[in-house]
Amino acid sequence: MIVSTQGLGKSFDGHTVLSDVSLDVEAGELVSIIGPSGCGKSTFLRCLNLLERPDCGTVTVAGVSVSREAGQGWTPAQERLAHQLRGAVGMVFQGFNLFPHRTVLENVMLAPVVVKSTCKAQARRQAMALLEKVGLEAVADRYPVTLSGGQQQRAAIARALAVEPLVMLYDEPTSALDPELTDEVLAVMRQLDLDGMTQIVVTHEMPFARAASDRVVFMQHGRIVEIADPDIMFVNPAAAETQRFLKKYL
C-alpha cells in the first residue's frame, strides 16, 4: 500500500466532517472518490497530504506515517513528518492556482528550483519534458491568462508532477471546465495511469470514474459507505445509499 488511512476524523466548529475514514490504495491504482456535495470528499483529500490536520487517526504515504490521538495537539515532530510526507504527493486543485505573473514554463520550474534546489537549466529541461507530456510545449512562454481552462489545468498537472511525486491527488479537477476541455484533462490523467502513477481523484465525472478507475469509493455524511470495482459500483452497488446516489447512472 502506498497510501493508507486509519480512523481519520475531522470536525470544523463542532460539525463532524470526517468520521472513522479508513482507506488503502495500492501503488499504480487510480481511485475515484464520489459522493454528494458536502460529504467530506475534499476534506479527506486535503487530510491525505495534511493540508488539513486530522483531529485523529493515521495517514501513511510512501512509508511515512503521521498519527494523532483525539484531543492531542500538533507537535513539531508531527509537522516534520508532515513535511516529509508532502514531498511524496502532488496536488491539483479545482481552481488551477497558477501564478499569473509567471509563464507556464516558470510555473512548472518553480517548485524544483525553490523546494529541491534544482539548478535552473536542469529544471527547465525537466519542465519542458513535462509540458510536452501534457501537450503544452507550444505555449511554454505564455502566461496563464492567455490559456484555456483545460490548458491551465494541464499546466497545473505538469507543475504538480515537477516535484516527482509518488502520488497525485486531484480535487474536482474538471468541475470548472466545459465538456471539451474536460476531455483534455482526463486524457492526461488516463495517460498517467498507463504510466503507473498512483492517482486519487475526487470527481463528479461519473463516466470518467467508471471508465478509468481501478476502484471507486462512495462517501456520504463523512464516512466511506462502499468501495468497489467500477463495474460493480455502477451496475450493482451493495449499499442502498450508493444506489440512491447513482440512480440515474445505473
Give an account of the 3D structure.
- There is one protein chain.
- The mean pLDDT is 94.
- Helix 3 (104-115) packs across helix 4 and helix 3 (104-115) packs parallel to helix 5.
- The chain is of the alpha/beta class and 250 residues long.
- The chain has helices spanning 41-48, 76-86, 104-115, 120-133, 149-161, 179-194, 206-212, 230-233, 240-245, and strands at residues 3-12, 15-25, 30-34, 56-61, 64-68, 89-92, 167-171, 198-202, 215-220, 223-228.
- It has a six-stranded mixed sheet with strand order 6-7-8-3-9-10, with helices on both faces.
- The chain has nine helices and ten strands.
- The two termini are 30 Å apart.
- The longest helix has 16 residues, at 179-194.
List the helices and strands and how they pair.
Layout: E1 3-12, E2 15-25, E3 30-34, H1 41-48, E4 56-61, E5 64-68, H2 76-86, E6 89-92, H3 104-115, H4 120-133, H5 149-161, E7 167-171, H6 179-194, E8 198-202, H7 206-212, E9 215-220, E10 223-228, H8 230-233, H9 240-245
Parallel strand pairs: 3-8, 3-9, 6-7, 7-8
Antiparallel strand pairs: 1-2, 1-4, 4-5, 9-10
Q: Please report the number of helical segments.
A: 9
* Mean pLDDT across every amino acid position: 94
Oligomeric assembly: single chain
Rg from C-alpha positions? 18 Å
Strand count, sense and closure of the main sheet? 6 strands, mixed
Amount of beta strand: 25-35%
Low-confidence spans: none
Q: Give the proportion of residues in helices.
A: 25-40%
Helix and strand pattern: EEEHEEHEHHHEHEHEEHH
Strand order of the largest sheet: 6-7-8-3-9-10
Helix-strand category? alpha/beta
How far do the termini sit from each other? 30 Å
Identify the overall geometry. Answer: globular
The number of strands is 10
